[in-house]
Structures are given as C-alpha cells and as structure tokens.
Amino acid sequence: MKLLRLMGLTALIVLPGCATTTGHPFNAEAASHFADGKTTQAQVRSALGEPETIQDRGDGSVMWVYSSSEAKASIRDYVPFAGATNHTSMQALSLVFDRRGVLESHTAMQSR
C-alpha cells in the first residue's frame, strides 16, 4: 500500500512538468521583417541562425525551413475521465531564395 501511495505522489510531482520539444524555436518577430526581393540569406542566418532543413530545388534556388514544436502534458492527461489538457504549440517558416541568395518568397505558420 505504501508503495502504491509513493508511486502516486511521484507521478503528481513528475508528470505535471512533462514537455516534449522538437526543433529549435525561432524569433518570429525578426522573421516578420523579412521582405521578398530584398532580404538575403546572410540576413536571415544572422537573425535566426542555421535552418532546420535546406533543400536544393534543382533550378538554382533553395528552400530553408525553420520549425519547432512543443507538447506540454499535465497530470490530467494520465487520469481517466479527467479531461485531457495536452497543449501543443508549433511554429514553422519556409523561405525560398533565388540563385543570387535573395528571398523570393516565404511562408510562416504559428499555433498556440
């Protein structure tokens, strides 16, 4: 009985802080100032660091992708009929640069 009680107390202490993070969050405020036809790869790299993914598009242009997600869980997620409260937030930014390294187009997404 004491073991069961100890396990329950341990779960109450440990589980509320559970979080899973993938990728590296980027500065969405800095990204909001990027301008198609003007911003360069060097400026983006300076503002956001290295991209998560770089894709050669085969025509001299490249696409950079920055993305991250975080899922937070609470103790209610592990208690039947308590009503799950798992919260996921994510952000993604894809940027296409022409062969000169100038931003051609970009798309941003963020959810909370």
Mean pLDDT: 80
Catalogue the unreliable spans. Answer: 6-16
**Number of helices, counting only DSSP H or I runs of 4 residues or more:** 3
Structural class based on helices, strands and sheet pairing: alpha+beta
How does the overall form come out from the CA principal axes?
elongated
First-residue to last-residue Cα separation: 41 Å
From the alpha carbons, calculate the radius of gyration and give it in angstroms.
Answer: 21 Å
Assign a percent range to the helix content.
10-25%
SS strand fraction = 35-45%
Total number of strands: 5
- Biggest sheet layout: 5 strands, antiparallel
Helix/strand order, N-terminal first: HEHHEEEE
Overview of the molecule:
The chain starts with a helix and ends with a strand. β4 and β5 form a beta hairpin. About 10% of the residues have low confidence. With 112 residues, the chain is of the alpha+beta class.
